[in-house]
Specification:
The structure is a homodimer.
Chain A (H helix, E strand, L loop, with lengths): L4 E5 L4 H7 L2 H6 L5 E5 L2 H8 L10 H16 L14 H13 L1 H17 L7 H9 L5 H7 L3 H16 L7 E4 L2 E4 L4 H10 L3
Parallel strand pairs in A: 1-2
Antiparallel strand pairs in A: 1-3, 3-4
């Protein structure tokens, strides 16, 4: 089996919302597994001297319209969250804590977080909210709340973010296939062509 | 016949290079004409507090690789120009001067400018170089050199840039279809779907 596709995302990224429901199915067509990596966009924006899209004049309005338009096109629920963007530390930490035991469950948890934040427009900043989402998937609520406050788990998300930055990740969603980087939900078509052709 | 597609571009934009050869053919499938609008990205970047891609840490390297990769994919010649980016005032002014007489010729001129800059990697900043390109298409060289120094033609490019900014254009390439904005060469697939469906 060929190497897995690496998929990097921030839980507060609308364009990641449009990629999370697609990437595993797409990769599976080419016998590829997908390793999901949650990271924090904040340090990436700092590194590239960038700002959240919504805060950029003119571009922010364009993107707000684009997200709603993409959701209609993909027939995904969409509810512009407020506050947006948010620091998704609790979700990111929980993702790694769950994933260390069960990677498939961590993906389901991530999908549920994206659906809660962008599909229903509910704030997922608070650890209690993240615990609600986890609990609905049968995950130990008390264990999760303890984990997201654990210094080792906190450090884990920091380390994973640094690993992503070191790999050249500067935006979300971001895909790396056999060393080749692809940025953006708009590039899923290219990811597919690349997987099919093995590069060009 | 339905309204034309408005297509906005800067002559120094690599992603516009990947769109100029496609947009007219794509729109024609849906009986749409395309009106090309040259504008200056500099004021747009100022408005959105953005910088040229190549100057952005990490992202610049990603984009340089992405341009070469897109060129290979589209089987277009690619030669990373130096200097890059450039202020394409002469090309922009010439484009409008030619287009006032012959819009089809202005498009051929624009395609030749893009091919010279990105296909062959030759600097097109100088009016003399722009005149070479125009002359190869049978355009009056002396007339063009006079035009690009004419205050009225200079003002024309400024005005067209302001019209673009007022329409919400903040990047290149940019398409507006019946009031709906689409940004980026990555969105030609969406432009096509939108033209086909009449929106969604």
């Amino acid at each position: 089996m060929p190497d897995p596709v690496d998929f990097y995302f921030d839980f507060s990224s609308p364009y990641a919302y449009f990629a999370v429901t697609k990437i595993d199915e797409l990769a599976a067509e080419f016998d590829r597994d997908v390793v999901w990596h949650a990271f924090m966009l904040g340090p990436a924006f700092k590194m590239t001297d960038n700002a959240p899209l919504i805060d950029q004049p003119v571009k922010g309005n364009y993107c707000a319209n684009d997200w709603a338009r993409l959701a209609r096109f993909m027939k995904l629920p969409w509810s512009m969250p407020d506050p947006f963007p948010i620091a998704t530390l609790a979700a990111g930490r929980a993702f790694y804590w769950i994933g260390d035991e069960d990677r498939a469950l961590a993906k389901r948890f991530a999908l549920a977080c994206f659906d809660t934040y962008f599909g229903r427009g509910e704030d997922i900043t608070a650890a209690e909210k993240v615990a609600d989402i986890a609990e609905s998937l049968g995950i130990d609520r008390a264990g999760l709340l303890e984990a997201v406050a654990d210094p080792a788990v906190k450090q884990r998300l920091k380390d994973e973010t640094q690993v992503a930055l070191d790999a050249g990740v500067f935006g979300s969603p971001f895909f790396i296939i056999d060393g080749e980087p692809f940025w953006g939900a708009d590039r899923l078509w290219m990811v597919k062509r690349w997987l099919k052709a093995g590069g060009w």
